[in-house]
Design brief:
By secondary structure, the protein is an all-beta fold. Helix content is 0%, strand content 46%.
């Protein structure tokens, strides 16, 4: 089970860090991914972190602005978001999936999803 937290209202240009916590050690997953979905838009993959070695991958849309990290065993994974803009407003989700050598799992490969946390960027 995955649980996101840390969402809220942020002014444009601000930062926010989301957390994804698991009820048990994430060894059952090879990777933890972050996604978002804005109203009326398709779900967008943001990136992921490998549970075993903490390697990370990012989508082009957020690379350099978002950072994914985890605690020592990736039981809790973080999504640090910087320079947030109104277009970043969405519900953010984390998901657990299998390990892949050079990339994040495909969307269909993710096995478990959190309930989401709302992030709103507005002045």
């Amino acid at each position: 089970q995955l649980v996101e937290s840390g969402g809220g209202l942020v002014q444009p240009g601000g930062s926010l860090t989301l957390s994804c916590s698991t009820s048990e050690r994430t060894l059952g997953y090879g990777a933890i991914g972050w996604f978002r979905q804005a109203p009326g838009k398709e779900r967008e993959g943001l990136g992921c972190i490998s549970v075993n070695d903490a390697n990370t991958w990012y989508s082009r849309s957020v690379k350099g602005r978002f950072n994914i990290s985890g605690d020592s065993d990736r039981r809790t994974v973080f999504l640090q978001m910087n320079d947030l803009q109104p277009e970043d407003t969405a519900t953010y989700y984390c998901a657990g999936g299998p390990w892949r050598l050079w990339s994040c799992p495909t969307d269909r490969e993710y096995e478990s999803w959190g309930q989401g946390t709302q992030v709103t960027i507005s002045s």
